[in-house]
Amino acid sequence: MQEEGKGKSIVTYAMEYGIYLGLFLTVKFAVTTQSTRFVALNVLSQVLLLALPFVVYWLMRRFRNEMQGRAGFSQLWLFGIFLFFFGSLLSGVAEYAFYRFIDPLYLERLIASVLDTLGTLSRMQDSPFLEVMREGLEKGGAPSAIEMVYQTILSNVFFGSLLSMLLAWVSTLRKQKINS
Fold first, then answer.
1. Widest CA span of the chain, in angstroms?
2. Burial 85-111 (b: 16+ CB within 10 A, else e)
3. Are 69 and 75 in contact (CB under 8 A)?
């Protein structure tokens, strides 16, 4: 994994560029959590979600340029996986602080709101499934702050891996068109 010349590995580049992705994910998380209070932030949250592939593609291009264009599909994909891992670690710190100290009841309120919405919008008003979920929530069934952060990191890495695979493929296609 060590590259010749500059002496940096893919992991080192992913750590450096992961700071940018982590800050982006932290801003997206902050906007998303505040969109429950300010409806106008819902639009911004969706825009940030749609901007994520462009941010990752930009970071992949910067990495490929640092490698003098020699980064192939597998290197770009691996870089993307590491990028999401390190970015998620950084945003996970902010998420943990929010869930644990700033608004400890946020998850419980969010789950209760989703259950109420399910009950009113669907034909499940008298569903035993919803009743069991409400009872579980009342008995402390909401995930803890660290469980939520762990779940977020895992899902970011999984979906980031899929996105990185697609973007690495697009990036290598574009590189092939430029070379031919």
1. 67
2. bbbbbbbbebbbebbeeeeeebbeeeb
3. no
Mapping DSSP to helix (H, G, I), strand (E, B) and coil, where does residue 144 land?
Answer: coil
Tokens encoding 130: 């919803």
Q: Is 9 helix (H, G, I), strand (E, B) or coil?
A: strand
User: How many Å apart are CA 142 and CA 29, to the nearest integer?
Assistant: 19
| Separation of alpha carbons 83 and 78, rounded Å | 8
What distance in Å separates the CA atoms of residue 103 and residue 23, rounded to the nearest whole number? 20
Structure-token pair, residue 110: 């969010």
How confident is the model over 96-138, as pLDDT tens digits? Answer: 999 999 999 999 998 888 888 887 876 666 777 778 888 888 8
pTM, full prediction: 0.88
